[in-house]
Amino acid sequence: GLHIIAIVFTLEVSVGKTNTVMALNNSNVLLPCTFITCIGFQDLVFTWYFNSTELIYHGRIKSKAAEPLLVGRNPRVEFVGSTTGKENNISIVLRNVEFSDAGRYTCHVKNPKEKNAQHNATIFLTVVQKMVETDNTLTLIIVGVVGGLIGLLILFMLIKRVVLFIIKKTQDGKKECLVSSSGNDNTENGLAGSKAEQKAPPKA
Description:
Layout: E1 12-14, E2 20-24, E3 29-31, E4 34-36, E5 44-50, E6 54-61, E7 69-73, E8 77-79, E9 88-89, E10 92-94, E11 103-111, E12 117-128, H1 137-182
Parallel strand pairs: 2-12
Antiparallel strand pairs: 1-4, 3-10, 4-9, 5-6, 5-11, 6-7, 8-10, 11-12
Domain Ig-like: 26-124
Pfam families: V-set
Main location: membrane
């Protein structure tokens, strides 16, 4: 019979949780990139491209036990990764960033051990004159309003409990007065209906 063998390539390339980076003009910026392969690698080739066409770094890794060898690079690009550790890091640093450096940077990996499997990930660089602080005024206003409402609610609940407590005490006091007044003996106070007035007058 005919047997079909499915080969699943496990090579993955990542630039981290976010694919955007912002850098100040004339500063250095890190362009992160890592790769994962479950079956290992041999003579792996990785390249960095600017806007998909301009090659700015080219490296080759013989095996897991060896660090990458430089094949070619842009003078302003420096390799800062390591592949002998736990994470296969092939990150680079772009020095003295200029406004013209803004654009798309692609980290491309090719692994001959996985039938020349290839994978890439892209990161977008924005270059600015100065970093703009995030305006949190609206957030602070919302937090303040919510906090104020919660505070008012708590105050209302406390006032309600105090009022209910006072009402209960007042009602308990009235009950005590009613009990004590209904229990008075009127035999000696000369009031109408007392036992003293109910006696028959003496006979002449």
